[in-house]
Design brief:
- The protein is mainly alpha-helical and 318 residues long.
- The protein is built from 14 helices and no strands.
- Helix 1 packs antiparallel against helix 6 and helix 3 crosses helix 9.
- The chain is globular and about 60 Å long.
């Protein structure tokens, strides 16, 4: 399946989700949760899939986004949208500092250290007065732009457009010369270093970009629900988000979005499976990795190519 078809299918899928949610508040909140996970998964896609860096601190970056919105509004009187603008650079700086400190680590050791950092960061948020301690910050005002307060449907629409634009931009970035070099640094880092491109610098940039995108997920969720506490972005978020690109397909950022939709639907929207949603996700990942290692999008692409091959070629008599 070509990148252009994947992008078109992704945009169409997001549009259908907005129509499905409509003015229904439950469906709107469910779609916001899907988009939050999609943004976190897109953030993980950059260092994890493109650069091959197994950083597991993304619950901390999402929490940075959520608390930037909440602290800015509750203590400084900022509008929520200003906190959403402040969150990405703050999260990017944290990711770059952490990446520089763990530059010599890779694989399991990098995953373990960054996971410990995420847990420590969440614990710290629960012990500070400015963050509201374990209770967090509640009662945030509605999202507004110069006095205009969008309805829940309009907020969902804006969040969907943001997610779609980021997925589209990451897809273009993946196929750009910079994206090709980043992917090459994952496979043959010595060759890329020999060519004069610093692999360490590429990893730091990838970590910063990914953290900035993930923080938008946390900021979006906090702005929509009007509250945040340390449990909102626990490390459980990581265990779900890391599977989303694998389920949807790592060949395109749209796979991360598709994986988020599938995971949230299975864990929250299917009543019959609500008690075993996480178990079902684990089994789904196992089945997909065994049968369809390129994810749902990769499997769809294989089916499309098989169907095309069966069509009679123009000018060839049968």
């Amino acid at each position: 399946m070509s990148a252009r078809i994947q992008s078109a299918a992704g945009i169409l899928g997001l549009a259908l989700l907005v129509l499905w949610a409509g003015e229904d508040l439950y469906r709107s909140s469910l779609l916001i949760t899907m988009l939050t996970y999609a943004l976190i998964a897109l953030g993980m896609y950059v260092p994890f899939v493109l650069a091959g860096s197994l950083s597991l601190s993304y619950s901390a970056y999402a929490a940075t986004g959520g608390y930037a919105v909440a602290i800015g509004s509750a203590h400084a009187g900022w509008p929520l949208w200003l906190g959403m603008l402040v969150a990405p650079p703050v999260a990017a700086v944290i990711a770059v500092v952490l990446g520089a400190a763990t530059m010599r680590l890779s694989g399991f050791y990098l995953g373990a250290v960054t996971l410990l950092f995420a847990e420590a960061f969440i614990q710290l948020l629960g012990n500070l007065d400015i963050t509201g301690g374990p209770s967090g910050i509640i009662g945030l005002p509605l999202l507004s732009f110069g006095g205009w307060e969008p309805s829940p449907f309009q907020v969902v629409l804006m969040a969907t457009v943001l997610t779609g634009l980021l997925a589209f931009a990451l897809d273009r970035l993946r196929r750009s010369p910079w994206g090709v070099v980043v992917r090459a640094s994952r496979e043959v880092p010595i060759a890329v270093d020999t060519a004069g491109v610093s692999v360490s610098l590429l990893n730091l940039v990838a970590l910063g970009v990914g953290a900035a995108i993930a923080s938008l997920g946390g900021a979006l969720f906090t702005a929509y629900v009007g509250a945040v506490n340390p449990e909102t972005f626990s490390v459980n978020v990581i265990f779900l988000a890391v599977f989303m690109p694998l389920i949807g397909g790592i060949g395109s950022p749209w796979g991360a979005v598709l994986g988020a939709v599938i995971v949230v639907d299975l864990t929250l929207n299917v009543d019959a499976l609500s008690s075993s949603g996480t178990l079902l996700v684990s089994l789904s990942v196992l089945v997909i990795l065994v049968l369809f290692p390129r994810g749902v999008l990769g499997f769809a692409g294989t089916l499309a190519r098989s169907g095309t091959a069966l069509l009679p070629k123009r000018g060839v008599r049968t």
